[in-house]
Amino acid sequence: GAVHVTVSIGICDDTIPVARPLDRLQYADTAAYRAKRLGEDRQVLYDTGLHRESVEYRRVESLLRTALEEGRFVMHYQPIVDLADGRPTGVEALVRMRDRDGKLVPPGEFIEVAERSGLIVPMGAWVLAESCRSIAALHRSAGVPLRVSVNVAARQASRPDLVTAVYRALEQAEMPPDALTLELTESALLEADASTLDRLNELRESGIQIALDDFGTGYSSLAYLRQLPVSLIKVDQSFVGTMTTDPGSAAIVRAVTTLAGDLGLSWVAEGVETMEQWQALRE
User: Fold this and answer.
1) pLDDT tens digits, residue range 4-25?
2) Which of 58, 76, 103, 244 is the most exposed place for a label (fewest CB within 10 A)?
């Protein structure tokens, strides 16, 4: 049969000054990568704007590598509370990075670079181990049983050693599996192959909760929802933050929480910041 082949092309012409011929090849490769990210089967010209992005990418990638080597990541924990009585039931682990001057770098400035470069894998392994360790230690010292939610990137989830890494983190922290939630985005779950889904199912069967993060912002395919190894849905903060002022957002939150209940799934609303939002969610 006929095979239809498409091509993504990156172009760097002589309007961009280079110190050596290899630089122009690397710039063209950067433009080709952009073409693929934009949906493939297109051409992208390497211009001054893309050059600035490329320089910034290399700067952040270098910062990430040294932060990993020097242990400059820190964890922040956002509380997850029961809507009925405000009782804390768990925390979400949020990673931050310190730059060379000790200032905190927000995740929006380095997570995408970590994912593109593959550094999300060692960084994610550290986040998982540190989150389990610190929350288990809090449980032992304060007697507060809390569940910790940890984000897992698509590259982490697809690795054959995912199950081993998770069990190792739990064992070293002396934490039971039912105290851990792994959060994955819709795109990561929908793009997962059969072996990745098998690994996630194995983790869920051990007592670990699998959460679908940012529900409603991606594919949101209801047909897939019953087939995925998910036990919890997270309602994206973009809907929660405007649900008391935008009837459309309120309708989406209502629909998602009703759907979760009908499917026997738990749900968490992200980014509750006002009493009005709290009350609207309770209702």
Assistant:
1) 899 999 999 988 888 898 989 9
2) 103
